[in-house]
Amino acid sequence: MAEEKALNDQMRARRQKMKALQDDLQIDPFGHRFDRDSLAADLHEKYDNKTQEELEANPVHVIIAGRMVAKRGAGKVIFADFRDRSGQIQVYARRDDLGDNYPIIKRSDLGDFIGIAGTMMKTEAGELTVLATHLTHLSKALRPMPDKYHGISDVETKYRKRYLDLIANNDSLVRFQQRSKIIAAIRKYMDEHQFMEVETPILQTQAGGAAAKPFITHHNALNIDMYMRIATELYLKRLIVGGMERVYEIGRIFRNEGMDAKHNPEFTTMESYAAYFDFHDVMDQTEGIFKAAAAVVSDDLKVTYQGVEIDLNKPFARKHMVDLIKEKSGVDFWPEMSVEEAQKLADDKGVKYEKFWGVGHIINAFFDEFVEDTLVQPTIVYGHPVEVSPLAKKNAEDPRFTDRFEIFIMGSEYGNAFTELNDPIDQRARFEAQVAERENGNDEAEGIDEDFIEALEYGMPPTGGLGIGIDRLVMLLTDTTTIRDAILFPTMRP
């Protein structure tokens, strides 16, 4: 109750200052367009190495603007720190220099936006500073800022009111700036390798391309239920059929599933498809993308995640799933076996399975149980069983497995890729197997997409496809343990 009263007192005081701006100084508290010519980071880069005497001998005039985040002094002299999108810089304001303009900063509160014209100088302590010669009030903050020393104590507030998190926690601001640069680096890599960026429907009449529960909505004009997309895959492949040859899309995906440190109901992926590639080509592409993204945050492509150094500069390890299972559990799935034999192996090792699973499902469960958590450095795991890869091409030498891979780092999966299935007859059989799984209790299994099969019947060239989870990649490269810190506005309970 006392905190609420104190907050109300502060808000009341700020409104009084707002009124004083209007009545006493004839200033609009919420300002107008402002031209600045410099950002804080640029000024530091240019002048941090200049001496006090050099700046006095060759005056540099600048115009900056930003939010006031600290204020010291009173009377005739005030020091204040201002933050813009690039960083922070100190301003030195004297009544003797500013005259009637001085009350703007004297009456200002933390959080207010002010434009400052002035000259570059250095204080006796050697701190780069703008000596203000003119001030322009730009916007009044009517609520007090979060305490910069204690941040936002309520984690819920951090995610519900991201703007406060960005104001109070510079680490958050930097992380989301890096996220933007990481996505830009991926785009640059794809564009340089002749991929075309495209957009495919978010609202679809049939959800496909992944094993996941969709969000269902209703289109009033057509009076039909529609689905938020759970993947971009099937539409991007239609474009390969149409002759685009190399396409990619960075966009939101929606899955009506649980939420935890690695999952949010809406998230961002990058999916790409290249005609005449196989999964080996996509392995090379994947390494290139990860290295390009890592270069945003690390010159040597080494990043530290939760105290562990991850070396993205070395060639990524490439290992078959069955070999890894044998290495970690001692169980050898290379010999052909019946479902009953695979179930006995699972029983012996305490691996749980569903009654409708085939051998391939059990192999995949062994990988989850014994291998996944052990993959710390970048590892490309290939050779997934056909039962868990309904859209991947069967391996020519051993049709129990597919030409598919996933990339694992720090025990988590960051990408999924394969030589695409382009045989419409095989594709229909795979879809039908998925329907049978659904009837046996797997409510995430796909249905039959007749239009996609028809597209394949017109002919799709051999194709390599890739999907990367952008949010998880950002988490890795910025040393973040929860997806909520990698998405600006994560899904929250009302």
UniProtKB/TrEMBL annotation:
Reactions catalysed: tRNA(Lys) + L-lysine + ATP = L-lysyl-tRNA(Lys) + AMP + diphosphate
Pfam families: tRNA-synt_2, tRNA_anti-codon
Aminoacyl-transfer RNA synthetases class-II family profile domain boundaries: 176-494
Cofactor names: Mg(2+)
Keyword annotations of the record: Aminoacyl-tRNA synthetase, ATP-binding, Cytoplasm, Ligase, Magnesium, Metal-binding, Nucleotide-binding, Protein biosynthesis
Domain of life of the organism encoding this protein: Bacteria
Cellular localisation: Cytoplasm
Binding site for Mg(2+) 1: 406, 413
UniProt keyword Metal-binding, yes or no: yes
Entry-linked SUPFAM superfamilies: Class II aaRS and biotin synthetases, Nucleic acid-binding proteins
EC code(s) of this entry: 6.1.1.6
InterPro entries: Aa-tRNA-synt_II, aa-tRNA-synth_II, aa-tRNA-synth_II/BPL/LPL, Lys-tRNA-ligase_II, Lys-tRNA-ligase_II_N, Lys-tRNA-synth_II_C, NA-bd_OB-fold, NA-bd_OB_tRNA
Main subcellular location: cytoplasm
Cofactor: binding details: Binds 3 Mg(2+) ions per subunit.
Residues at which Mg(2+) 2 binds: 413
Gene name per UniProt: lysS
Name recorded for this polypeptide: Lysine--tRNA ligase
Broad EC category: ligase
Homology family: Belongs to the class-II aminoacyl-tRNA synthetase family.
Single GO MF annotation: lysine-tRNA ligase activity
Signal peptide range in chain numbering: none
